[in-house]
Design a protein that fits this description.
single chain, 490 residues, mainly alpha, Amino acid/polyamine transporter I, two-stranded antiparallel ribbon
Length: 490
């Protein structure tokens, strides 16, 4: 009989792998290759962006293995930062996670789910505006995204076992379906697409768009090419993100010291492999370079638009259309709906544990630090669902993507840097796993991600500089909760 009001250990190794992989694979792999293609302009560098993002993610996951072995607790990364630095640094992570990283990703994936639902039911698309005042409007897609977020929040409040079962079923289903589609996509190919993509494999160039028209392709080399790769990685890193979410549920994983690390390592490697194969399928069946359709024209010339200008950036749908026509489009759209549903469930399941831990440390609303009779932080899950729903109304998929990626990268840098600090602070602590290639590999990771952040700050200032603002706002909020806690104890 399970004890009420405490965490229940229900997540086994296979469940953990499905939580990692299922949460990582959302809609990004089916969408962001279009933007990457416009930035780098060649098949070779499209694959480089995805491969490099995969390597960085797997390296980070293997580095986190040391931290999860030391602290297999609820809150995961929040606890790592608290032990490495201070409660202030941990709070700033938890605050930013709540404000934009976790909830922003939930909102972005929810909007993506709604986009692909619109393939089946046009009345639920973004074009169906239900309410408008000036520039502010609410579409049917936004309403659908909110409904799905709230539904999955309610389901996860019923217990981790229920949320885990949904994650494992939908996660494994979409991975098997993806491998099936990859097998078909590698067998079927278009000779013209292959000729175009592989004859100019390393000819990097950036497209220039003026008033909806393609006006130029600027060759890239040297720093311009490095910058283009860095800017492009905001999309691929978003598609790779959320691999660390299993650390948030540390006290609900069976044999946590072993299984969290294994889940992250296996899950990230599996997803990176899938993403590379999916992009190879894209390149075998659709030319990377294309031209945008004239403004206000609903062009159906999928081949001419290529990967760069796939309608609404839905590359997966465009490739399916090029391969097999309308029926394949519906299959891909259905797969993406399953994929985003699974991703949303994993994000919702795990995120509330961080806010719970913050409240348990008396650094958040006290009610968030309580577990319900099913052993889950119901109040924290509810607040997360409400805020993510509001973010669904705040902007487009791309806006949220930019906010999320930069803020997440900042804390990955600090967390992996914490490994060095803990080696000095706690030299004799139990470490079932040690960071891959310490100290060289963690240093290389930190250096590369800092460079990536600098590139994003320079070339994507509208949505990266606010990341600093989100973190900075957390400082007075931290001292507010700290003083509130001290006054209660007095």
């Amino acid at each position: 009989m399970k004890q009420p009001g405490v965490f229940h250990r229900e997540i086994r190794l296979f469940d953990g792998v499905m939580l990692v992989a299922g949460t990582m694979i959302g809609s990004g792999i089916f969408i962001v290759s279009a933007d990457i293609s416009r930035n780098v302009g060649s098949a070779g560098y499209l694959l480089v962006v995805w491969a490099f993002s995969g390597i960085l993610t797997v390296v980070a996951a293997l580095c986190y293995g040391e931290l999860t072995g030391m602290f297999p607790k609820a809150g995961g990364q929040y606890v790592f930062l608290r032990e490495s630095y201070s409660p202030l640094w941990a709070f700033l992570y938890g605050w930013t996670l709540f404000l934009v990283i976790q909830t922003g990703t939930i909102a972005a994936v929810g909007v993506a789910f709604a986009k692909f639902t619109g393939v089946f039911l046009p009345s639920l698309s973004e074009k169906n505006i239900l309410f408008q005042i000036g520039r502010f409007s609410i579409s049917a897609a936004q309403v659908l995204a909110i409904c799905v977020i709230l539904l999955l929040t309610y389901i996860n409040i019923q217990g981790v076992k229920t949320g885990k079962m949904i994650q494992t079923f939908f996660g494994s289903t979409k991975i098997l379906a993806l491998f099936g589609l990859i097998a078909i996509g590698l067998f079927v190919s278009d000779k013209d697409a292959i000729t175009q993509n592989f004859s100019q494999f390393w000819d990097a160039n950036k497209v220039v768009i003026d008033n909806g028209n393609l006006t130029d392709r600027i060759p890239l080399a040297g720093w311009a090419l490095i910058a283009a790769i860095g800017v492009s990685m905001k999309g691929s890193m978003f598609a790779m993100d959320a691999w660390n979410n299993i650390t948030f549920a540390g006290e609900e994983v069976v044999n946590a010291r072993r299984n969290i690390s294994l889940s992250m390592g296996i899950g990230t490697a599996l997803v990176a492999f899938i993403y590379i194969l999916v992009n190879v399928v894209y390149l075998k069946n659709l030319p990377l370079q294309g031209v945008p359709p004239p403004l206000n024209v609903d062009s159906r010339n999928t081949f001419a638009q290529g990967i760069q200008f796939a309608k609404d950036d839905r590359v997966g749908v465009a490739v399916a259309d090029a391969m097999s026509g309308h029926r394949a489009v519906l299959i891909i759209a259905g797969l993406i709906m399953v994929s985003t549903f699974s991703c949303l469930n994993g994000l919702i399941l795990s995120g509330g544990r961080v806010y719970y831990k913050m409240a348990d440390d008396k650094l958040f609303f006290a009610r968030m630090g309580k577990l319900n009779s099913k052993g889950v932080p119901a109040a924290a899950l509810t607040l997360q669902g409400i805020w993510a729903s509001l973010l669904c109304l705040s902007g487009t998929y791309g806006d949220l993507l930019d906010y999320v990626v930069f803020a997440a990268l900042l804390f990955y840098i600090f967390t992996i840097g914490g490994i060095f600090i803990l080696r000095k602070k706690m030299p004799n602590a139990e470490r079932p796993y040690k960071a891959l290639g310490y100290p060289v590999v963690p240093i290389l990771y930190i250096t590369v991600v800092i460079l990536l952040c600098v590139i994003l700050l320079i070339y994507k200032p509208d949505y990266t500089w606010p990341g600093f603002i989100f973190v900075a706002i957390g400082v007075p909020v931290y001292y507010f909760f700290k003083s509130k806690s001290q006054s209660r104890s007095n």
